[in-house]
Design a protein that fits this description.
- This protein has a seven-stranded mixed beta sheet with strand order 3-4-5-6-7-8-9, sandwiched between helices. Strands 12-14-13 form a three-stranded antiparallel beta sheet, sandwiched between helices.
- The longest helix has 23 residues.
- The protein is built from seven helices and 14 strands.
- By secondary structure, it is α+β, with helices and mostly antiparallel strands.
Length: 257
């Protein structure tokens, strides 16, 4: 069985191949459809899914895959998965549609309910983030420069990263309770990555998300020294019967909940 470290180069290459396909469509007059839950989906979501799933099947044919765009594997099958790929072909489809650039491609490896490897790319921004449990996290910027990531001790005025599309009353109340703060806007799973690279301090999410929305970015943040926990202070787990996440807080190691 290949080590997680040895898989990284290939996973980054698969993500980059998905990026290229996504950006081909990003520059066209693409159409937008809606799923049963009214969330948008485009041909870019489906094209990215195809590239990633095909790449993962060739790389690790023995590891099952759960992707947002094929999330129909029954629990009777999934409950036996102790190691699986968790994929969000495009996180932040609303940002993709609005052409803000704040969308990501996400690939995570889950072992025993925990994200142990994560790759997050932001195709329109030319950024890539990756993290491996116990080894660290890194970022490659749009000029190709790489650096290792570490969460930081927050300044007196907490930098709160929040969703532009999902900032509800409960989240506002949580943020207000932090005391003096400033808001740092970011879309998609980039919110985790901004904490990992020290540009933000905390991201509360009191609203619905699914496992594929968070798995890869959680791996990056935790590898950078941060943490993701439920509002009750428990670890965020993966491979559940219900793929919806509990409400959570992502932050640097300073946060105690």
């Amino acid at each position: 069985m290949a080590s997680n470290t040895s898989l990284l180069t290939d996973i980054l290459a698969i993500a980059e191949a998905a990026n290229a396909k996504v950006m081909e469509i990003y520059g066209t007059d693409f159409s937008v459809e809606h799923k049963e839950d009214e969330s948008p989906v485009t041909s870019a979501d489906l094209a990215s899914h195809d590239v990633i799933v095909e790449g993962l099947k060739q790389l690790t044919p023995d590891i099952p895959i759960l992707s947002e765009e094929s999330a129909h594997a029954p629990w009777s099958e999934r409950k036996a998965w102790t190691r699986f790929w968790l994929v969000d072909p495009i996180d932040g489809t609303r940002d993709f549609v609005k052409r803000t650039g704040e969308f990501t491609v996400n690939i995570a490896l889950i072992e025993e309910g925990e994200p142990v490897l994560g790759v997050v790319t932001a195709p329109a921004l030319g950024e890539a983030f990756w993290g491996i449990k116990g080894e660290g996290a890194w970022k490659r910027d749009h000029e190709g420069r790489e650096r290792q990531l570490h969460v930081v001790v927050p300044p007196p005025v907490r930098r709160v990263v929040a969703s532009k599309n999902h900032l509800n009353e409960e989240t506002r109340a949580f943020i207000d309770a932090l005391g003096e703060h400033c808001l740092v806007q970011a879309g998609s799973s980039l919110k985790f990555c901004r904490i990992a690279e020290g540009r933000a301090d905390i991201y509360p999410r009191i609203g619905p998300t699914c496992e594929w929305d968070t798995g890869a970015a959680q791996a990056v943040l935790e590898a950078a020294g941060g943490k993701v926990q439920t509002l009750e202070g428990e670890l965020m787990r993966y491979g559940k019967e219900d793929v919806m996440n509990p409400h959570f807080v992502a932050a640097g190691s300073w946060y105690q909940g």
